[in-house]
Amino acid sequence: MAYPVENLLRPPVEYVAAGTSLLAAMIVATAPEWFLMPDTISQAATIAFIAHAVWRIRQARQVTRYQKNLRRLPKYTLASKDIPWSERKLFLGMGFRWDQRHTQRLINVRLPDNRHFRDQSTLYKTARQVELRVERTQLAWLGRLLRQEAWWNPAVPLPEVGGDPALHGIEPNERPVWEALGERVGHKMVLGTTRVGKTRLAEIFIAQDIRRGDVVIVFDPKGDADLLKRMYSEAKHAGRENEFYMFHLGFPHFSARYNPVGSFSRITEVATRIANQLPGEGQSRAFKEFVWRFVNTISRTLVALGRTPDYEQIARYATDVDPLILDYYEAWLSREGPPNWREEVESTVAELLSDKRNKAPARGPALRAKAMVAYAREAGLFDQVAHALGSITNYERSYFDKLVASLLPLMDKLTTGHVAELLSPDGSADDPRPVFSWMNIINQGGIVYVGLDALTDFEVAAAVGNSMFADLTSVAGRIYKFGADVGQSDTVPKRILSIHADEFNELVGPEFIPMLNKAGGAGYQVTVYTQTWSDVEAKIGDRAKAAQIAGNLNTLVMLRVKNTETAEMLTDQLPEVGVVTTLLASAATDNSDPAEWTDFNSRNEDRVTTERVPMIAPADLVQLPKGQAFALIEGGQLYKLRLPLPSPDDDVPPDLARIAEEMRRRYEGQAPGEEWWAQEPPRTAHASAVWPQGLVVEGKGSGH
User: Fold this and answer.
1) pLDDT of 435-483, one tens digit each?
2) What domains does the chain contain, in order, with CATH numbers?
3) What does pTM read for this prediction?
4) Beta-strand (E) ranges in 60-197?
5) Radius of gyration, CA atoms only, the chain
6) 16, 578, 611, 618 - which has most CB atoms within 10 Å?
């Protein structure tokens, strides 16, 4: 029978009926003669009474289980190797689909009359008080006893997850929640304040992607050693440890190498990736455009000379472009100039030296570069790259330095210290650290951990991260135009590219917008993690662009947040639902007619009404316990999720554990005044002495 009002906040009276039926079954079974029953009738009656008791016990257990869950949820622990995965779906956690019933239950639980269902018992509160009082006394053993998780302890402490357990406890029948993989190319956003489970959720997603055989790229601005350990452990369990790369700005001696501007579809991409790091508002716009043109000229020249552009070469020629002009004109004139061009250039040099109006230096590369440019013009020789280089010599030197002044600090950040070895690989055979490119990683089906060390230098981290995203967008464009197998071997199965960007607000830039807009068609599936959406808006500096990014993230998972505006990103997408309220009404009417036998009439009634309320409120997202989330998936379906706690018996290789411990020591354990980046290990210890066998494979990848 369906009742108009569901009432689970009541005493479990079904136990009384169940006890009565069990008593009746016992009497009928042992003394049927009391009721003048033959054996067959007594046996049938016994079975009927027992069945009725079981039915009532199940009903009572539903009530007691529901009420218990409002205070304490069952512990959910899962080792990473036991995380379920599928070729067709993505496991999100344990949970249930939220609908009107759950909104109704949550409202009922929060009524003042039902507060005792949410409060902890007196026994529990007393046990916690005793723990504090006996701490640092001779009775400290009693406190440890009260905290022990055992069947005989009815007052086991709750896990320190905070929040309101009733948000998940209102549905005792949770089940695994899966999302169709077809939704992944619509991209996913995970929001949650610090230390509430974003990294654990990332581990769950990454583990499944690795086992599924995807190309997995994880951007970790902070440099989380546990995430690195988990990725390699999953790669090893999946038999893919030889496909694993680590790129870490904080540990250049143990990192793979990568040229952020060495791979492109169009040469103009190099200038775009570098110029986008510069401010472009107001008067800075003109300087940014000049820097773009200047860097583009350098890049075109390097490619024409058969060299791969990198940060070190661009930084070198940004301060002194004359050697590059000499190299190109030497190659160009040797190829297309007349046989006597060298004598003509020497004649031009002599003319410049004799001209008193010439402000060029009396000797050196600058004078010879100017002479070569002047000779080519007088001889009527033309080449696009040569013409662009020649226009640079027209600027007065001090004026030119002002124009490129905004470029030099950025280049210094990217070419200082050991980081330069990572971002400008020279291809030396003496260096065992591999060089990779994104197309190479896709072709090999690789797994890449990118640690950007943003806690040490967030500006360099942002610059490198943005360049990597721009490079990935370029690769997506090539795949989108030429097909999913562009750059891939015929012997390698075509793979999906799963990108996970932790602390997304540290990495987001203009390059990210076209990736989300277009990369889904190239097989990219992007998952971003951040604390609040306000952080993204602040980094972008444009609310409309931030909204454009949010509009391309079709799946939303929201853990506990502290920002109401962030919470409204979820709640504003949900409909209102009708909830039932009851109103007790009573009335009495006096009768003053002496001819009537009745002196008064009374009436008591329960009025059931319906009102419209939001499905969930922003305040509910603020009260979520750690490790719990709401998810809006598969076309706006709302699910309530609970993430598994990591099991302590996870299988982590001891050699990788040693690497992670070294990372922690370098970040946290150095002595006062000791700089870990100044501690250069021997060149022979770059990789082989630290990384486990198979983790770094020499010769993989290329810088262009």
Assistant:
1) 999 988 988 889 999 998 887 778 888 888 888 888 888 888 888 777 6
2) 180-259+430-575+615-646 (3.40.50.300), 268-414 (no CATH)
3) 0.84
4) 77-78, 89-97, 175-180, 188-191
5) 36
6) 618
